[in-house]
């Protein structure tokens, strides 16, 4: 509770300072602040990503003196603890008690699923960062937009690059044994096999497996290993590949979570040469990103990874939509429509728009870990423009198939 | 053939790490009758402290000792200030250790942030041992050797010293031990501290493979519980045998039946609980 009171105070204070400093026209100021409810994770094992999400949003608001579309912003932060039930309670509190105009978050797919029904019934626009595929596919939520990516969206181009540009033929795929891991790997497998490659071994590890030694020592002879692990698990895997003397025996390619900027420095030389597909890289060369990276490095002494970037990106989309409707975010229908129709010409990760189901269509970058000036960076080696969640399969054909899962698409080439 | 050799090596290496984790837990459990649910937190704290010392340029072995001492100190403070006041109140003690494990987890998050910290093994132990076409991490074998040395040292401490005799007396019959003038209350602190030191050292030795990250405590604690339930609370031999049984079950379970990995780990624990609740080497409390 005290956390809420503190953030209310801070928000009010910041809003007051901002209005007096910038001399906002009185009429707009009287409309009150734009209230954003922010669902993040500050405690428990998933807090790493949650804290970064907060960094991204804080940097965004600071750069704009806490103003969006000419109105001050009041940010209500809620800690979901990475717990679906708590996410649900906190969402309800944000909507009913604080009357927020829109929501940003939550981080994890199972949290997003837990609040799905409530979002529909309370009609609150939400910019989520959770990957859960079906929320913008077979069971779309009309109030939801996702500016980052579905779980498999960046896996498709990564597989295309691995098969066509790197000419890799035989792949081991590996991920955490939960929905994100299944979806992330399934996207890779489908495109890789359609492009002539073969997935010869498929391994899903329990989310809390303490040690990967057993798995690593059982790898079959392959050209590449695709990892879709999240958080510290990816780091653990890549470290243990070196430990077992397998570094260099195959190319490591990955989804956007295991080879994230937030663990890159810790990974050290073990990470060199790893490829990954992501809608973002801290090394992207555009003015918005350069300023964003510099600010995060200055304020937090770290390189921003996807979690920081995705809330910044969501806020950029929100700002764009709020401007389209003249700042009148009280009209939730109008705000939701503006969010879904947003075509943002420049964000920190390039231009983007949304498909009719609320998911982003934008660039996906193939990145390679390199060492530059003593630092490890995700250098962009190829850009796939306008990637949609349906890749090249077409919306209708894509949606006719079952949702990506542990066993779909089926692996026919296992050895 | 290579499969069996590698997985056997994996199993004994992991078993060694588990012994460092669970021996301290078992000692405190045996003497004080409380499962210290903060023991996973002690292990994680050891990993973070070790990583921090090496981050600031410390040698790996110094980092290991520093982590052991640091966590041992936390153990003393915890036992003296909190557990002590709840003597006899088992429920209260269990809840307090659970609460402390949350506090340790959140303090670690606050101090070391959510990003994982790595702790590289000493550079001379980093290249894997290569033998007849297969490779195995050198450092894991070193951890196994350290676990063996620790086991022997603990055996001598418990079986050949006066302190050990007093601890054994306390485990077997606390009232009688008190009656014959053994300072059981001081022993509590010593044993609890020793357990924390072992967890701290184990954390540092585990970190080069596992890293230090939020949630490491929760990943390791169940393994310590399984080991101690299998082996029997308070029995050093039980912790030793239990660690390697769990090491083998975990590795071969995952390798042969990947979808049943956790089931295979918990099944023997259930069987032991049903058939011999005191564990393989535990004593039936009088």
Sheet having the most strands of chain A: 9 strands, mixed
SSE pattern of chain A: HHEHEEHEHEEHEHEHEHEHEHHHEEEEH
Q: Largest interface, with Cβ-Cβ < 8 Å? A: A-B, 37 and 43 residues
**Straight-line N-to-C gap of chain B:** 48 Å
Radius of gyration of chain A: 21 Å
**Which runs of chain B of at least 5 residues are low in confidence (pLDDT < 50)?**
none
Distance between the termini of chain A: 55 Å
User: How many individual helices of chain A?
Assistant: 14
Question: Percent of residues of chain B in beta strands?
Answer: under 5%
User: What class, by secondary structure content of chain A?
Assistant: alpha/beta
Q: What share of the residues of chain A lie within helices?
A: 40-55%
Mean pLDDT of chain B: 90
Notes on the structure:
The complex is a heterodimer of chains A (415) and B (286). Chain A is of the alpha/beta class and 415 residues long. Chain A is built from 14 helices and 15 strands. In chain A, strands 7, 8, 9, 10, 11, 12, 13, 14 and 15 form a nine-stranded mixed beta sheet that branches. In chain A, strands 2-3-1-4-5-6 form a six-stranded mixed beta sheet. In chain A, a hairpin with a 5-residue loop joins strand 13 (352-354) and strand 14. In chain A, helix 4 (84-96) packs parallel to helix 5 and helix 6 (155-165) runs parallel beside helix 7. The longest helix of chain A is centred in the N-terminal third of the chain and has 21 residues, at 2-22. Mean pLDDT of chain A is 90; it is low at 1-30. In chain B, a hairpin with a 2-residue loop joins strand 1 and strand 2. Chain B has helices spanning 2-32, 39-55, 60-81, 90-112, 138-160, 162-172, 174-179, 184-210, 216-231, 236-256, 261-275, and strands spanning 129-131, 134-136. In chain B, helix 2 packs across helix 9 and helix 5 (138-160) crosses helix 6 (162-172). Chain B is an all-alpha fold and 286 residues long. Chain B is globular. The A-B interface holds A 43-45, 47-52, 203-204, 206, 208-211, 213-215, 217-218, 231-232, 235-236, 239-240, 243-246, 262-263, 266-268, 302 and B 3, 6-7, 10, 13-14, 105-106, 109, 113-118, 120, 127-128, 130, 135-137, 139-140, 208-211, 213-216, 218-220, 223, 250-251, 254-255, 258, 261-262.
């Amino acid at each position: 509770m005290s956390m809420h009171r503190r953030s209310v105070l801070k928000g009010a204070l910041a809003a007051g300072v901002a209005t007096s400093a910038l001399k906002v026209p009185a009429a707009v100021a009287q409309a009150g602040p734009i209230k954003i409810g922010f669902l993040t994770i500050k405690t428990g094992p998933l807090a790493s990503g949650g804290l970064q999400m907060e960094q991204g949003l804080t940097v965004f608001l600071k750069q704009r003196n806490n103003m969006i579309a000419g109105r001050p912003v009041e940010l209500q932060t809620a800690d979901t603890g990475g717990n679906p039930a708590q996410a649900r309670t906190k969402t309800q509190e944000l909507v009913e008690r604080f009357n927020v105009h829109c929501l940003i978050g939550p981080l994890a797919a199972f949290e997003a699923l837990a609040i799905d029904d409530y979002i529909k019934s309370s009609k609150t626009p939400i910019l989520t960062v959770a990957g859960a595929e079906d929320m913008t596919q077979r069971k779309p939520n009309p109030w939801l937009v996702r500016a980052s990516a579905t779980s498999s969206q960046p896996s498709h181009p990564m597989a295309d690059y691995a098969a066509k540009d790197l000419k890799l033929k035989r792949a081991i795929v590996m991920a955490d044994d939960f929905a994100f891991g299944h979806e992330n790997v399934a996207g890779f497998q489908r495109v890789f096999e359609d492009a002539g490659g073969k997935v010869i071994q498929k391994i899903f590890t329990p989310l809390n497996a303490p040690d990967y030694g057993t798995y690593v020592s059982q790898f079959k002879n392959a050209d590449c290993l695709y990892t879709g692990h999240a958080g510290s698990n990816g780091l653990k895997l890549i470290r243990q590949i070196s430990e077992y003397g397998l570094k260099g025996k195959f190319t490591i390619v990955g989804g956007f979570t295991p080879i994230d900027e937030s663990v890159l420095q810790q990974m050290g030389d073990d990470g060199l040469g790893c490829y990954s597909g992501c809608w973002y890289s801290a090394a992207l060369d555009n003015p918005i990103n350069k300023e964003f990276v510099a600010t995060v490095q200055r304020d937090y002494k770290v390189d921003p990874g996807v979690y920081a970037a995705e809330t910044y990106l969501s806020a950029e989309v929100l700002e764009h939509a709020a401007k389209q409707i003249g700042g009148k975010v009280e009209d939730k229908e109008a705000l939701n429509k503006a969010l879904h129709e947003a075509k943002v010409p420049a964000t920190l990760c390039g231009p983007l728009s949304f498909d009719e189901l609320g998911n982003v269509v934008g660039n996906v970058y193939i990145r390679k870990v390199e060492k530059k000036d003593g630092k490890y960076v995700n250098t962009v080696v190829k850009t796939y423009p306008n990637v949609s969640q349906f890749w090249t399969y077409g919306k209708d054909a894509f949606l006719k198939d079952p949702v990506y899962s542990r066993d779909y698409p089926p692996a026919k080439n296992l050895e | 053939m290579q499969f069996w050799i590698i997985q056997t090596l994996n199993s004994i290496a992991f078993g060694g790490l588990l012994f460092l984790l669970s021996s301290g837990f078992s000692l405190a459990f045996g003497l004080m009758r409380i499962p210290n649910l903060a023991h996973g937190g002690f292990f994680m704290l050891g990993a973070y402290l070790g990583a921090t010392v090496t981050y600031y340029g410390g040698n790996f072995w110094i980092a290991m000792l520093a982590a052991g001492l640091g966590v041992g100190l936390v153990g003393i403070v915890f036992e003296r200030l909190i557990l002590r006041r709840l003597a006899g109140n088992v429920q209260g003690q269990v809840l307090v250790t659970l609460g402390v494990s949350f506090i340790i987890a959140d303090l670690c998050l606050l101090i070391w942030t959510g990003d994982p910290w790595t702790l590289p093994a000493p550079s001379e132990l980093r290249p894997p041992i290569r033998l007849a076409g297969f490779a195995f991490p050198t450092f894991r074998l070193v951890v196994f050797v350290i676990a063996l040395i620790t086991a022997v040292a603990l055996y001598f401490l418990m079986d050949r010293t006066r302190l050990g005799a007093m601890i054994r007396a306390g485990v077997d019959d606390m009232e009688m031990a008190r009656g014959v003038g053994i300072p059981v209350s001081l022993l509590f602190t010593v044993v609890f501290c020793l357990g924390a030191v072992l967890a701290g050292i184990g954390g540092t030795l585990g970190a080069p493979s596992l890293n230090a990250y939020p949630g490491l405590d929760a990943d390791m604690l169940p393994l310590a519980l399984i080991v101690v339930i299998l082996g029997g609370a308070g029995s050093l031999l039980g912790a030793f045998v239990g660690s390697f049984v769990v090491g083998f079950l975990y590795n071969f379970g995952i390798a042969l039946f990947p979808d049943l990995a956790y089931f295979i780990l918990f099944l023997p624990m259930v069987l032991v609980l049903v058939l011999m609740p005191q564990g393989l080497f535990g004593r039936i409390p009088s």
